[in-house]
């Protein structure tokens, strides 16, 4: 394998159309069919009669239930008292509501989600934000913090200078405030943990891989903070004072601030104690500034690249992304000193295996 | 489309020294690619190339017997980019450039296409770019290379000297001969500050101030060479000394790429 | 005799047939002054009325004769979504006897677009478009009838567009021009410190990049001084007319 480029011959179904292997493929097809007959068809009816039989995967057009008692949710349709699936995914049954959650789909926003989005359009008193969903989300001028005091009313001059707050292409993190009738989201950034994103790099994974947790912003080892948007948009940045301040209370209560952990994030706190409320008072045009922190060292940039590559590796292996897994994958990636080698397929698979094996080991240990 | 802060961050990382690329690659490092060859049953040769960012391109090679005393133009490329009109500037530019690259005056040796004293094979290369996130010409040239390398042509059974006998060449019913031709490779480098990068990703293209398309054959850089813009943002002039620097980088690493394509 | 002819529309009684003054050949004047130099470049701007800016470039050397007209339309508003920078388009029409392939001219047009993307101060014109047209009126290679070396006309296209842009009052970062040597073209700004475009076609001669760069830079400086000279003169004659 050369260091400059890896070229591999693709192995996949597509290649099988190439003549010689045609016979083989037929045989395999037969085997698959017979598998299907003993396996699926035998099992399915039983599963369907049992309401709560765990994870069930269905394909479009497949009969999910013939029991008319169920209410039909997303991803299903109803014909002659039978409920069929309209997407490929897992069946979810909540009380009397039956829906199929697709394995792969665009992000569908829910109230309270912490998302990362990119401004697509500046409109009348609102921004249209691309959050990777079916529709652009809306961020109203009234749902953002305006410079010069958090409690200020929006004025006409604000409407005229919307592009000086947020313009096309700008990245921001926000919370889904409410949903419209058609399923599109209305966002708000009325907290200092939301707003324009700076000092880092963007990375995107399928939204289904993001595991929702209490907190979507995490300080990682190496002085890097990650914002894991529930919509699969991820922002990696240098840990700011505010990021470390956010973590500080829990650590500060537990032990003395002087006892600094391995993250490096805590040591920043002792330097200057800034509370979030104080930052709010100081919020001004600075919250919409387009300038990065000038002190980002090459080391931090490399660490950010490494995190971005391991997140992509986890996504490549279709592993759900959580803070622990990112940290574990990061540690597993340390054996590769060249960050650039993490884009190779084999390396990504090896990291995925390491993470899963590590979890298994820990599971056994407990 | 990138935000202002992302652009500044990327530009600082890429124009600085040492450079930090967003995926940690070295300046001359390519992203991995996957290639299928010889999968179109109705073509003499074919290849499908998939880059790790999802860019994808299909090339088909077909041949026809022509009288080379009428026209000695034996290679012809046609490019189709999904979602673009055939007369869009990008499609026309890439088509004209690739045809120039495959002109015999540039350096490709077409003597292996000669069948008889009167007739030759003419090669028609059809390129279909299914998706592309940065300048596709380099990917296309890799695909053309592997398609031509997997091309098999019918074996000639009639005599070589047919000037007097006025007959068309005839071919063997089953036997095929592997085409032996060495097309040039094309590389795109992005210029960011005073640094150069091979195989720039979409975000790297967005902060590039200019780009250079370079042709390479047999260990050295040859004409045609062009500057091109890789994205519409922040196009700027650059230091003239960057051109020899880029040529040096390509001459240093192109051999490895050729080998990787050969070892498929 | 004094019966008026009422059936026809007649002009006034004192009408005279129009006569044209003999055409003053400005080109000859210019040529005379620069006769000892091998190349002569004749420039003229603002000759087309219905566009925002235009220019005429005539070039003559012992190898080649080229004449082209550049016209600029814009900046004009573009519809659709917001863009923070002006979009540039270049189109080339061949009216000469030179046999250029249509797709090669398109390639050249997109090359010129790249050159001027870095020269025009595009951020001054958000949500606008600038259209540039080049009409190649005459082009002949005096040495080689067959060889249609498209590279040789690039510097003149660049010169022509630059003048037309200045005539249209569109902001440019610097006066750009380029030089051609053995199939290589370099376009420069900032006294040759920065390259805005590089085009290299295969040439018969054994080429040396360093040498091409040097020759092209010299030619660029020469063309640029002719252009600035012309612009100063033009300014002067305009201010005289106003006074």
From TrEMBL, chain A:
<feature type="domain" description="Exosome complex component N-terminal">
    <location>
        <begin position="57"/>
        <end position="94"/>
    </location>
</feature>
<dbReference type="GO" id="GO:0071034">
    <property type="term" value="P:CUT catabolic process"/>
</dbReference>
<feature type="domain" description="K Homology">
    <location>
        <begin position="200"/>
        <end position="241"/>
    </location>
</feature>
<dbReference type="InterPro" id="IPR036612">
    <property type="entry name" value="KH_dom_type_1_sf"/>
</dbReference>
<keyword id="KW-0539">Nucleus</keyword>
<dbReference type="Pfam" id="PF21266">
    <property type="entry name" value="S1_RRP4"/>
</dbReference>
<dbReference type="InterPro" id="IPR025721">
    <property type="entry name" value="Exosome_cplx_N_dom"/>
</dbReference>
<keyword id="KW-0698">rRNA processing</keyword>
<dbReference type="InterPro" id="IPR004088">
    <property type="entry name" value="KH_dom_type_1"/>
</dbReference>
<dbReference type="GO" id="GO:0000176">
    <property type="term" value="C:nuclear exosome (RNase complex)"/>
</dbReference>
<dbReference type="GO" id="GO:0000177">
    <property type="term" value="C:cytoplasmic exosome (RNase complex)"/>
</dbReference>
<comment type="similarity">
    <text>Belongs to the RRP4 family.</text>
</comment>
<dbReference type="GO" id="GO:0071028">
    <property type="term" value="P:nuclear mRNA surveillance"/>
</dbReference>
<keyword id="KW-0694">RNA-binding</keyword>
<dbReference type="GO" id="GO:0003723">
    <property type="term" value="F:RNA binding"/>
</dbReference>
UniProtKB/TrEMBL annotation, chain B:
<dbReference type="Pfam" id="PF01138">
    <property type="entry name" value="RNase_PH"/>
</dbReference>
<dbReference type="InterPro" id="IPR027408">
    <property type="entry name" value="PNPase/RNase_PH_dom_sf"/>
</dbReference>
<dbReference type="GO" id="GO:0034476">
    <property type="term" value="P:U5 snRNA 3'-end processing"/>
</dbReference>
<dbReference type="GO" id="GO:0071028">
    <property type="term" value="P:nuclear mRNA surveillance"/>
</dbReference>
<dbReference type="GO" id="GO:0071038">
    <property type="term" value="P:TRAMP-dependent tRNA surveillance pathway"/>
</dbReference>
<comment type="similarity">
    <text>Belongs to the RNase PH family.</text>
</comment>
<dbReference type="GO" id="GO:0016075">
    <property type="term" value="P:rRNA catabolic process"/>
</dbReference>
<dbReference type="GO" id="GO:0034473">
    <property type="term" value="P:U1 snRNA 3'-end processing"/>
</dbReference>
<dbReference type="InterPro" id="IPR050590">
    <property type="entry name" value="Exosome_comp_Rrp42_subfam"/>
</dbReference>
<dbReference type="GO" id="GO:0000177">
    <property type="term" value="C:cytoplasmic exosome (RNase complex)"/>
</dbReference>
<dbReference type="GO" id="GO:0035925">
    <property type="term" value="F:mRNA 3'-UTR AU-rich region binding"/>
</dbReference>
<protein>
    <recommendedName>
        <fullName>Ribosomal RNA-processing protein 42</fullName>
    </recommendedName>
</protein>
<dbReference type="GO" id="GO:0005730">
    <property type="term" value="C:nucleolus"/>
</dbReference>
<dbReference type="InterPro" id="IPR001247">
    <property type="entry name" value="ExoRNase_PH_dom1"/>
</dbReference>
<feature type="domain" description="Exoribonuclease phosphorolytic">
    <location>
        <begin position="29"/>
        <end position="154"/>
    </location>
</feature>
From TrEMBL, chain C:
<dbReference type="GO" id="GO:0000467">
    <property type="term" value="P:exonucleolytic trimming to generate mature 3'-end of 5.8S rRNA from tricistronic rRNA transcript (SSU-rRNA, 5.8S rRNA, LSU-rRNA)"/>
</dbReference>
<keyword id="KW-0698">rRNA processing</keyword>
<keyword id="KW-0963">Cytoplasm</keyword>
<protein>
    <recommendedName>
        <fullName>Exoribonuclease phosphorolytic domain-containing protein</fullName>
    </recommendedName>
</protein>
<dbReference type="GO" id="GO:0005730">
    <property type="term" value="C:nucleolus"/>
</dbReference>
<dbReference type="GO" id="GO:0071038">
    <property type="term" value="P:TRAMP-dependent tRNA surveillance pathway"/>
</dbReference>
<dbReference type="InterPro" id="IPR050080">
    <property type="entry name" value="RNase_PH"/>
</dbReference>
<dbReference type="Pfam" id="PF01138">
    <property type="entry name" value="RNase_PH"/>
</dbReference>
<keyword id="KW-0539">Nucleus</keyword>
<dbReference type="InterPro" id="IPR001247">
    <property type="entry name" value="ExoRNase_PH_dom1"/>
</dbReference>
<dbReference type="InterPro" id="IPR027408">
    <property type="entry name" value="PNPase/RNase_PH_dom_sf"/>
</dbReference>
<dbReference type="GO" id="GO:0000176">
    <property type="term" value="C:nuclear exosome (RNase complex)"/>
</dbReference>
<keyword id="KW-0694">RNA-binding</keyword>
<comment type="similarity">
    <text>Belongs to the RNase PH family.</text>
</comment>
<keyword id="KW-0271">Exosome</keyword>
């Amino acid at each position: 394998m050369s260091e400059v480029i890896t070229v591999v011959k693709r192995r996949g179904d597509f290649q099988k159309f190439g003549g010689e292997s045609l016979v083989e493929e037929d045989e395999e097809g037969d085997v698959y069919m017979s598998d299907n007959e003993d396996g699926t068809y035998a099992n399915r009816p039983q599963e369907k009669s049992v309401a709560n039989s765990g994870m069930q995967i269905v394909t479009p057009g497949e009969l999910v239930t013939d029991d008319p008692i169920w209410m039909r949710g997303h991803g299903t349709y109803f014909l002659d008292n039978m409920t069929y699936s309209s997407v490929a995914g897992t069946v979810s049954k909540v009380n009397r509501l039956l829906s199929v959650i697709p394995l792969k789909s665009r992000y569908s926003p829910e109230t309270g989600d912490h998302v990362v989005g990119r401004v697509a359009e500046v409109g009348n008193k609102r921004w249209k934000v691309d959050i990777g969903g079916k529709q652009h989300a809306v961020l109203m001028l009234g749902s953002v913090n305006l410079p010069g005091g958090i409690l200020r009313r929006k004025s006409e001059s604000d409407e005229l200078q919307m592009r000086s707050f947020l313009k096309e292409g700008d990245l921001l993190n926000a919370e889904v405030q409410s949903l419209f009738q058609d399923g599109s989201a209305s966002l708000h950034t009325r907290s200092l943990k939301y707003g324009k994103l700076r000092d880092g790099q963007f990375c995107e994974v399928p939204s289904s891989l993001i595991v929702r947790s209490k907190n979507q912003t995490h300080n990682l080892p190496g002085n890097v903070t990650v914002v894991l948007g529930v919509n699969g948009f991820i922002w990696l940045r240098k840990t700011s004072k505010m990021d470390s301040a956010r973590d500080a209370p829990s650590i500060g209560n537990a032990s003395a601030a002087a006892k600094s952990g391995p993250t490096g994030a805590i040591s920043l706190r002792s330097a200057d104690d800034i509370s979030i409320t104080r930052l709010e008072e100081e919020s001004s045009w600075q919250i919409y500034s387009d300038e990065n922190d000038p002190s980002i060292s090459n080391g931090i940039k490399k660490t950010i690249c490494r995190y971005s590559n391991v997140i992509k590796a986890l996504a490549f292996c279709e592993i759900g992304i959580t803070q622990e897994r990112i940290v574990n994958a990061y540690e597993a990636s340390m054996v590769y000193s060249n960050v650039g080698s993490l884009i190779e397929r084999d390396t990504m698979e090896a990291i995925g295996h390491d993470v899963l094996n590590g979890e298994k080991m820990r599971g056994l240990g407990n | 489309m990138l935000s202002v802060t992302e652009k500044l961050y990327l530009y600082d990382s890429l124009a600085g020294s040492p450079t930090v690329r967003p995926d940690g690659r070295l300046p001359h490092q390519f992203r991995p690619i996957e290639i299928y060859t010889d999968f179109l049953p109705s073509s003499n040769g074919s290849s499908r190339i998939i880059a790790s960012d999802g860019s994808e391109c299909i090339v088909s090679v077909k041949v026809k017997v022509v009288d080379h005393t009428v026209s000695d133009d034996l290679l012809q490329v046609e490019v189709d980019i999904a979602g673009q009109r055939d007369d869009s500037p990008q499609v026309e530019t890439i088509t004209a450039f690739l045809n120039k690259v495959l002109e015999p005056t540039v350096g490709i040796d077409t003597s292996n296409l000669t069948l008889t004293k009167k007739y030759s094979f003419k090669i028609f290369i059809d390129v279909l770019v299914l998706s592309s996130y940065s300048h596709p010409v380099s990917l296309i040239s890799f695909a053309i290379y592997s398609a031509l390398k997997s091309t098999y042509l019918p074996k000639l059974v009639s005599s070589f000297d047919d000037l007097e006998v006025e007959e068309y060449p005839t071919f063997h019913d089953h036997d095929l001969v592997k085409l032996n031709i060495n097309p040039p490779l094309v590389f795109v480098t992005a210029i960011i500050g005073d640094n150069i990068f091979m195989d720039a990703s979409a975000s790297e293209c967005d902060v590039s101030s200019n780009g250079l398309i370079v042709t390479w054959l047999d260990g050295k850089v040859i004409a045609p060479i062009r500057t091109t813009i890789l994205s519409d943002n922040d196009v700027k002039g650059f230091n003239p000394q960057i051109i020899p620097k880029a040529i040096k980088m390509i001459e240093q690493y192109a051999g490895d790429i050729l080998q990787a394509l050969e070892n498929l | 005799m004094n019966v008026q002819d009422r059936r026809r529309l007649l002009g006034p009684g004192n009408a005279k047939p129009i006569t044209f003054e003999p055409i003053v050949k400005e080109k000859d004047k210019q040529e005379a002054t620069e006769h000892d130099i091998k190349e002569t470049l004749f420039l003229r701007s603002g000759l087309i009325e219905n566009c925002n800016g235009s220019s005429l470039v005539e070039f003559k050397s012992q190898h080649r004769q080229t004449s082209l007209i550049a016209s600029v339309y814009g900046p004009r508003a573009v519809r659709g979504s917001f863009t923070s920078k002006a979009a540039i388009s270049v189109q080339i029409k061949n009216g000469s006897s030179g046999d250029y392939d249509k797709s090669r001219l398109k390639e050249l047009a997109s090359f010129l677009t790249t050159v001027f993307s870095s020269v025009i101060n595009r951020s001054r014109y958000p949500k606008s478009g600038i259209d540039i047209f080049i009409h190649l009126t005459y082009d002949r290679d005096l040495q080689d009838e067959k060889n249609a070396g498209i590279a040789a006309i690039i510097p003149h296209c660049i010169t022509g567009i630059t003048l037309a842009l200045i005539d249209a009052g569109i902001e440019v970062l610097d006066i750009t021009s380029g030089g051609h040597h053995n199939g290589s073209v370099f376009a420069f700004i900032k006294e040759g410190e920065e390259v805005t475009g590089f085009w290299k076609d295969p040439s018969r001669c054994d080429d040396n990049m360093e040498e091409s760069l040097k020759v092209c830079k010299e030619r660029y400086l020469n063309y640029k001084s002719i252009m600035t000279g012309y612009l100063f003169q033009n300014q002067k004659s305009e201010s005289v007319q106003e006074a």
